[in-house]
Amino acid sequence: MAEASAEKTKQRNSVEQDDEQKIRDLIATWQRLTAAEDLPQLLRLMAEDVVFLIPGHPPMRGREAFATGFQKAVQQFRFDSSAEIQEVRVAGDWAHSWSHLTVKMAPRDDGPPMRRAGYTLSILRKEPDGRWVLARDANMLREERSTST
User: Fold this and answer.
1) Each residue of 94-115: b (16+ CB within 10 Å) or e?
2) Furthest C-alpha separation in the chain
3) What is the pLDDT of residues 76-112, one digit of tens each?
4) Would you call 122 helix, strand, or coil by DSSP?
5) Are the C-beta atoms of residues 75 and 93 closer than 8 Å to each other?
6) pTM of the model
7) Do 142 and 103 contact (CB within 8 A), yes or no?
8) CATH no. for 2-144
9) CB 73 within 8 A of CB 54
10) Residue ranges per structural domain of the chain
11) CA–CA distance, 65 with 133 (Å, rounded to integer)
């Protein structure tokens, strides 16, 4: 009996570690796709009912709202970001992650670059096909004044 319980725990831990790695990969993929301005693939990384919370703005609800905002943003800026993942926790088909995120925004009109940095808290959901998607995201980035890029 104890051996069966230990085996189940070992399997559960293995699945959680695999899921944690999938979430870390999702975060890295998000950054790569944003820099590449690949909106169709970015949309696949989020739930249909995704909600983004951004200071000073009303909640951005759904993929369509994200797509509209993203299209406007990439007309004005090129993006490069990096995330220092602080924690990923998996609990069944739900997970959360928090990271320190830095986003460099280079204006397309050759104006001075901007940089935003701060923490994000993300809630992810495992889809029936096993993919993890972003369900909720609280973004607490602030603009940082900098003369270098």
Assistant:
1) ebbbbbebbbbbbeeeeeebbb
2) 68
3) 999 999 999 999 999 999 999 999 999 999 999 988 9
4) strand
5) no
6) 0.85
7) no
8) 3.10.450.50
9) no
10) 2-144
11) 16
